[in-house]
Every structure is written in structure tokens, then in C-alpha cells.
Amino acid sequence: QVQLVESGGGSVQPGGSLRLSCAASGRIFSIYDMGWYRQAPGKQRELVATITNGGNTNYADSVKGRFTISRDNFKSLVYLQMNILKPEDTAVYYCNAEMVTTGGYEHNYWGQGTQVTVSS
After folding, report:
1. Which residues, 6+ apart, have CB-to-CB distance to 54 below 8 Å?
2. Which of 28, 45, 49, 105 has the fewest Cβ atoms within 10 Å of its own Cβ atom?
3. What is the rounded CA–CA span in Å between residue 43 and residue 1?
């Protein structure tokens, strides 16, 4: 079984920082793009940032200059460093990865989500 498990969420004051981590585990043959998405109450899930296995990154305009996505290919980890957090960053953050299993099955996987709350 292949899964993604996030950690690092929590509550922080505006202007603060948090670092999210996501670990992929299971019978993984290869991991392609990885990314972070978020969903605020009453809103649709939206892209935050993505990173290819070559290290190319893409960010939502709302987080450019504040958030940084990175990955460790050897450890099958992806990170999201979030700085200068704003109340509008409050959401459940989901890890996402396109992975191929050792059985040759390619699928887009989601983590269970981690809550980030920015409030004074």
C-alpha cells in the first residue's frame, strides 16, 4: 500500500512561520511531481505549490515570495516552508504526489491533510 502522511501543521500568529512535511511510503517504484494544495472552509481545494522530480517549482500567486517547496528524492519527502503567514492562509493543507508502484500502477495520491490556522 502506498500512502502520503503530512505533519507540521498547527496554529500561528500572523507573520509567523510553519514548515509542513510529507512522507511517501509503501511499495513505490518512482515519484514524479509532488505538491501541496489547500482547502479553506467553504472554498474549493486550490494549488499552493508543486515541484518536479528535477526540482522545477511552481507557486500560486498568493504565496509567491512567502512559501518555498522542496523535496528530498532519496527519502521520498516533500516540504513546504511557509513564512509571513496571513489569516487567509488558514486551511487544511494536503500533500499530493504522482507515483508509480512496484507493480507498475501509476496513480495520483493524496495525504489526509493537516490543519494550518493563522490567527491573532
Report:
1. none
2. 105
3. 30
